[in-house]
Design a protein that fits this description.
By secondary structure, the chain is an alpha/beta fold. The two termini are 27 Å apart. It folds into two domains: 225 residues, Alpha-Beta Barrel (TIM Barrel), CATH 3.20.20; 64 residues. 48% of the residues lie in helices and 13% in strands. The radius of gyration is 19 Å and the shape is globular. Strands 1-2-3-4-5-6-7 form a seven-stranded parallel β-sheet.
Amino acid sequence: MEGLADVHLRRLLTAQGGFDWAVSEFVRVVDRAYPDRVFYNICPELLNGGKTDCGTPIRVQLLGSDSGAMAENARRAVELGSYGIDINFGCPSKTVNRRQGGAAMLKEPDSLYRIVNAVRRALPQQITVSAKMRLGYDDVSLMLDNACAIEAGGATEMTVHARTRLQGYAPPAHWDELARIKSAINIPLIANGDIWTVEDYHACVATSGTTDVMLGRGAVRSPDLASRIRQNKMTEAQWQVVRHLLIDFWHDIRKTLPEKDCAGRLKQWVNHLRKVHPDAEALWHEIRTEKQWPKLERLIEAA
């Protein structure tokens, strides 16, 4: 989730518990090896032993179509402390797809194999190489070919967002297709898409046949969702708990982000939270046009 699940939000969400690991925002790989500062900028956790403050391992995510550059950057990310490499074949962004990155590669199973295999061969065997894909680009006609190509390339785990690129994020997620993929591969399958609640998790497991899930927007809207899935606890966290996380987030971003970016990042998260919490909806209407730091701080502390 580029521009959303940054180091600040990763720190807070993983601290709520329940996550085995998390991924960085993607490093857009073009045709060369990047200097270390690029990896530290995208994944500052590399300076903390490759983990968030609470100890959750972080996996650097790479996106690109140049197999040599992908392999070289994967090697360097692992040397810097990344807990494996995650390859992005799922990004639906038109800008990324026009440059033959992300979901655009789902049109060519051979390209998926080439990228995964190059990354796999560049790394020690014990290092995890995971890949995330969608059900397809325009349709699911190449779904099983893509999944098998990723496995054949040497991936050790596969995450599938249960929609095509054409379907974007429109509901519903097609968990039934994940069951077909699971039957066709022999590596662990991680389900993704429309897991907003603990009930959704159980429905996804029953339909897809896998107990492993990746949380994206669901965890942003409900910060304790991973922990509640672990505990099978249905009740959402109280707003006051979430509000304290929001205040913590505000103080954290103010230390490191440019002033012009802080208001936008705060509003971005509140916009997600208001899908679940009525109090966040009320706060959203108070802050949506506000730009001054002191006023924003007063509003979130009083929410």
